[in-house]
Amino acid sequence: MHQQCYPSANFISVEHLNFLQVLFTWKSVMSLLRPLLLDVVPTIQQTAALALGRLANYNDDLAEAVVKGDILPQLVCSLSEQNRFYKKAAAFVLRAVGKHSPQLAQAVVQCGALETLAICLEDFDPGVKEAAAWALGYIARHNSELSQAVVDAGAVPLLVLCIQEPEIALKRIAASTLSDISKHSPELAQTVVDAGAIAHLAQMILNPDAKLKRQVLSALSQIAKHSVDLAELVVEAEIFPVVLTCLKDSDEYVKKNGATLIREIAKHTPELSQFIVNAGGVAAVIDCIGSCRGTVRLPGIMMLGYVAAHSENLSMAVIVSKGIPPLCTCLVEEQEDHIKAAAAWALGQVGRHTPEHARAVAVANVLPTLLSMYMDTHSSEDLQVKTKRALKNILQKCTYLPALEPLLHDAPPNIMKHIVGQFSKVLPHDSKARRLFVTTGGLKKVQEIKAEPGSLLQEYINTINNCFPEEIVRYYSPGYSEILLERVENYQPVL
Amino acid sequence: MNPAPPSPGRSPGRLRRSAHTGPGAGGGRAAPQAPAGRARKRLGPRQEGGRHHLSPSPAPHRQHRAPSPLTGPRRPLGPSPRGCLCRPRSPHGAGPGRGRPRLPAGGAGWYGPLPWWRRRRAGGGSGGSMAALARLRARLPALREECFRRNRCVDEDRKIKYKAAVKIQSWFRGCRVRAYLRHLNKMVICIQKRWRGYQSRRYFRKIVKTAYFIMKMNFYNEMAVRLKSVRSFWTESGVNKGRMWHLIGTLSALEIQKRWRGYYVRKYIHNYYALKKYLEAVSVNNEIVRNELQEYAEMNEKEKKKKDQEKKEKEKEYQARKMHYLLSTEQIAGIYNSPFRKSPDPMELLLRQSKPLSHRRQQVKSPFRDELYDWPTCTRPPTFHAGESLPPIGRQKPQGPFRDTAEVLRQRYMPLEPTLRVAASIDSPLEKARVEMKRGEWRNHIHDNEFLPFSSYHKNEKYDLSIHRSGKYGQETYGIKHFREVQPNKWVTGKDFQTVLPSIVLFEKFGKTYSRCGQIV
């Protein structure tokens, strides 16, 4: 008879759940399942718990009903007494409830579930450990208070032990939980580091399993992102040059997380960036950007930007490693605005240091693209701001006139000021450039610019005009043909 | 006779003396006065106030003189002994008050008329005293007049002389003071002269330095301008040596600074060549890294391909083994060995190579494999025999509404899929552990009775001897009286072994540093 009581919800798949909601209200289902949890036969208890878990997993309303139905304290109390299947099922319920929102996770914590889950982490069965670690990870994911609660329950050393277990699934889940814990604040990251997690995580980078590598790299990057000391600790675990092999992995997300890790390390200080450059990290990241598409590229682009931003030597190293072409292709090819904005920012960082750098960027013919993006009304505000800043930075140092010419024709006044300023700096000293300026129509364009007298733009225009003989300036000034014709009309020939 | 002690402020005594000896014949007076006058020259630090080294200070001062026989007991003189030679002054509270000053005995007449009987007369004796008396009486009025006349002259003279003396003295004092002032003036001029000279020389030195400095700077700057133009000229003309000499001669500070700064920056701050080398090294390193990564990626790919291929081959082999019956025979060609083909299909070859699959079913996963830790002694899990026998071929189908034999047998011999209930043990590990613990405790009990507290109820209970202690003929002494077997005939010596090495002092103290009562706890 008890066998017949196996709840049918155990066999219900997700597609049928809507049907369930329609047929029964969820309260009635809960009320049906609740007494089954106290059944004598342990199998029934386990199956009832499993059913509850699946219901709560699907929908957050159902999860809330689980919480409101006071089921959680019961589960938590009986968790310590029961066998491993029940433990797995109960941990599954807790995870399903805790994953939807911080409030539900808080409700789970308030039932005292964390201590019990921490005890489950010490169980022999790897399945139980996995379920418990998963539940803890989902709870800790939401915010730093919940993470702190998880840490206070003493879960971190047990998770570090779990990482060392031979089962791959358990390693994955433990790594992902550590990543979720350490992402919120430096103190939490420090707690994870103090438990000795870095050494084990660093060893696991060599593991061939792709999903495990994803989680491990994510965990290391969450640790390294908070402060210089943590980043240095991660670097001291000798992840370079092994981490560069992850950038060549066939799995996209492994590449993405690897690039994220290198970015988090590079962004702190010039010394760390220098270290990465010396280890050949820049070349690996550039290749990685070239081979991926989409959001996977974003961390790599940002990493190049950070490295170039620190100092001009590092920026030159990026240029020498052939970093500019991939950035240009990213700028052109990508559809998403935020990736384009990142690429524009990175180019700005590369080109802003000295005229040599600006020349390298300008030669890649990327300035017109930047300008068009700036002028485009469909670009998001962030993209516009970033392109403008990048243009400004590069233009202020650019002395490569052939690249500046095309910009003269389309630029808005605030950019025009910089372009004309650069011309006014270079033209007085270079006669060949002056000739080219005239022949390419730049002088004509400059004459057509209307500037307020006394403004900086007018000064630059005056400086340029002073470089040329008066006739040619007058020749190119607008309306000169009319003036000449008028003179012809008014001319009284001397007979 | 001792000269009068040098008295302060004694004027050059000559005046006094002359005045003194003028009207009268105070010759005897001269003697004490002269040494007193001379004694002035011996002025020394014994004077009061000691102010007389430098100047003959004319401060009026009362002088003390040792009483001379001529002067008699000390007579207080007037406050200005030099001054009032003419007029006697009343002494300032010196000596008993006298209406008039005492006059020196037999001295000059200017102190006032001496009573006649005091005057000493040379040669006048008391021979004809009566006659003398009459004679004297006769002279008396004349004497009176004479005396008066003389006094008057003297008085007038005295006035004149006093005034004269005062004038002379004042003039002289004035001279002296002026001389002193002049002297002071000279000194002061000297000091101020020297000091002003020193100040101006200092100032002058400063001015000279600044002027020199300015001159030098101008000179150098001029040289720099000149040098630049000269240098361009020299480089164009390509003469190095001359330029060197020129530089050595007139190198300006600005030039030096420029050169030094350029050198320093180029060497330490922005070393162009080092940067270039570094960038080259970076690109070389990048190449190496890229190559290595490429190799790694290729290796990965190869491995993946190999794995896939192996999997495929394994599958193919398995298929071949399963379908071994498709192998062609002598008579009938198999489907893979069509006679119209030139050569047999590779599958055919594979079939030829492979061994037919045996009928043994695959090993079913034992349901008790997971419960291994429950059975500490059982290492190999018990496996169920899957049904090995196949249904006999060619059996007559039984008549009747029977199910298909194969199906029935399949169902009958289906391997057991234990349900959750069967697979899981009902007891949780916690309970199992508890049971174990209880068993362990029961095992280790010394005896099964509880230990009861001390009370009189149990006082008379007989103590049950433990098995260890009770021997056949009563209690065994082994374990109580002696713990070891001792065989003296096997001993090497009769005495104990002695330690050769000295014992460690610290260890000797063990257990002996404190009293034994502490050890009861």
From TrEMBL, chain A:
What SUPFAM superfamilies does the record point to?
A: ARM repeat
- Indicate yes or no for the key word Ribosomal protein: no
Concerning InterPro entries, the annotation shows: ARM-like, ARM-type_fold, Armadillo
**One cellular component (GO) term of this entry:** sperm principal piece
Matching Pfam families? Arm
Query: Which biological process terms from the Gene Ontology are attached to this UniProt entry?
Result: epithelial cilium movement involved in extracellular fluid movement; filopodium assembly; neuron projection extension; sperm axoneme assembly
Q: Which UniProt keywords apply?
A: Cell projection, Cilium, Cilium biogenesis/degradation, Cytoplasm, Cytoskeleton, Flagellum, Microtubule, Repeat
Organism superkingdom = Eukaryota
Write one Gene Ontology MF term.
microtubule binding
Signal peptide from the UniProt entry: none
Q: Does the keyword Transport apply?
A: no
Q: Give the location in the cell.
A: Cell projection, Cilium, Flagellum; Cytoplasm, Cytoskeleton, Cilium axoneme
Assembly description: Interacts with SPAG16 and SPAG17.
Q: Which PANTHER family match?
A: SPERM-ASSOCIATED ANTIGEN 6, SPERM-ASSOCIATED ANTIGEN 6 ARMADILLO REPEAT-CONTAINING
Describe the function of this protein. Answer: Important for structural integrity of the central apparatus in the sperm tail and for flagellar motility.
What protein does this entry describe? Sperm-associated antigen 6
From TrEMBL, chain B:
Q: Name one Pfam family in it.
A: IQ
Q: Which SMART domains match?
A: IQ
Which domain of life does the UniProt lineage start with? Eukaryota
Disordered: annotated segments: 1-106
What name is this protein filed under? Spermatosis associated 17
Give the gene name: SPATA17
Q: Which UniProt keywords apply?
A: Coiled coil
Q: Which organism is it from?
A: Anser brachyrhynchus (Pink-footed goose)
Please spell out the taxonomic lineage of the organism that makes this protein.
Answer: Eukaryota, Metazoa, Chordata, Craniata, Vertebrata
InterPro entries (alphabetical): IQ_motif_EF-hand-BS (IPR000048), P-loop_NTPase (IPR027417)
Q: Which residues form a coiled coil?
A: 286-320
Which residue windows does the record flag with biased composition (Low complexity)?
67-93
